[in-house]
């Protein structure tokens, strides 16, 4: 049927194709009841963005009704090889149709026909009625429909697909795409095509002969023997393939074009859908349109109704104008472009600003690249042949400094700590600040990553320009100062604008979701503390590291000789393949298991098991591996990571990585230095104090065990801590019925393993492995533990139940830690989620406590005349560099601050205690 329609522009959304793009493009998300909803979220976000951004007066969403269609009657192997949909996607199909209905959009599907056939039919009907048609999809099968009046839109890249793009893809125009596909076939849909002919060859043949039938009728003329034979032998397959790939344009559709008029969504219909699926960011964006209290700042986040206005600032007048605008607005998004991810070694190349709406600018400061046409990017006036026009860096920073330090103007950043370090090295102390990465982390920690690209997709439905698109990859990659200004402008300005919009979308959620305290009293103030710590760094003894590395090298050589002698031959010890073949084939050790690669598994757990059985060679290999890792990761690498200017190592702390709230350390990672071996402890001796100073190490004593007793309300353990008793001895006394006096150290060790195992949800199997006992004995120990300490069993059961119901757990300070796998159908993933849920409130509360201590520490030391500097945080430990004469007084201040870090928010029934150590090196202090 061909209805005339009063619409100017019809958008036909390929719902089936977009489902998979959304599913694989967005990280796993669960709604509160555990149902996966990442594809639903992406799909809903896309439809909202389409409605708001496009000038469409008619929209329809088209779905596949099932796998079978008329094509399976033509060729029974059509799509036969397609795997079943991923397990996490299956429950989302119905929800996606609910999303379409909630947005008040027509949802079209017909049994016996694919979505592409319905799209083709409606597209042709609309064109015949004089309408412009946009097919929202990147599916290559739909490219045959492109013609005057019908185009495609790739929603992920926001890129229009017209005849030129089709030719680039297939080497022919849209009218010959079907012929090329018929020859080349499609392995995904199991379209056979002609064996040995790909897209490139198919395009050449169609260009030469005009169409498929002409080619097949003249196939005998082709000079290449194999190609000629293939075409003659498979002519009928090519014809069948053409029928498979050609879209049907006359489907007897049951819904008229007249029913596709764009309609406003109904708040009472959309709101429950968003609430049930936990789409809080979408609810915040749509607050005013859902009939809730209008949020001016949220409207800023959704301000995408006009093209962004990006300005390249190359003179003082323009910069002064932007500074004035930021001061008047009272908030500005700030982002720096540099030559390195290492903030202590990077050079500042430029700064971007945004004041919201669609406005952003980029201020180049140290670019050296001109564009390909030699104009420096946009404006060479005042520049030179090999350097574009820029404001002198010193002058630009002089003008920006008052704004970036102005206490009345909020500076907004994405991972703003990096920018603060960069700008601090250039004489600017940025304050006050907000961080979109941390806002996301506080609101949705554990659900997904918190990088800008991911957040822009999740919360704004926007696909950002990727860094590699600007600087290149591999050997062709350049530093940002080599990027021409036109490319730099779009990338840098977008970063600032998206940051401003993310801030608008996320900050308003703190109050209704009760996350203000976690963000405002823990995460945000910690940014400035960490920025200063990273800049201070810690002194490293290069000669000591060099000597230690040489010592490790000699010991590795000796171990290598010993291992080769034991093996009776030389082999590459670091090769898992060669090691596996030696152990399980040549030496005949039983129990070897091959992985998918065909090689034997030789992980640490395998070798440890073999060593426990008395096999000497695996034990020596474990020693070799450990020493080799220490050498490469620490003694060698640390020498290269000593800053040539400061002579110190400057680690970088990440606040938004661990879901529990713990800080992560990188470049170098100083939190993973092994301390259980003598060799590992030696590495800490390489970190030393400056002359006339000592290193002070203060760490919490058994903080997580104390929190177990507190959170579980376990009176026996709380009393033991309150009385200052040995908690492991008390546990051994309670579980094993042995007296505390004269206790066997091995018994205490077993009790210690149980105490810490319980924190991490360890099973009887895991405890048996760690203690070297039978699984039955381990189960008996755990049962006895719970019998003596029933509060802990109660806590575990209650916490798991809460997590199953809500999808998250809470720390004592109110931090939400989401546990996505808690309601998984896969038993292993579900069990992992339950163990994580048990541990998270404990580890998360410990993380909150030391963060609070760090924030107060800066103020406490600042109120005295003490000159101590906080340098490092390693889990429950803080390291300071202290003048020798002030060690005792500083230690008292630090311990007081750490032991009272919960006050006045929490009144723990168990005292926190902190132990101090002092030394010339970190190893000596610890």
UniProtKB/TrEMBL annotation:
It is an enzyme of class 2 (transferase). SUPFAM superfamilies: 5' to 3' exonuclease, C-terminal subdomain, DNA/RNA polymerases, PIN domain-like, Ribonuclease H-like. Its EC number is 2.7.7.7. GO terms for molecular function: DNA-directed DNA polymerase activity. Residues 310-511 form the 3'-5' exonuclease domain. Single-chain monomer with multiple functions. This is DNA polymerase I. It comes from Kiloniella laminariae.
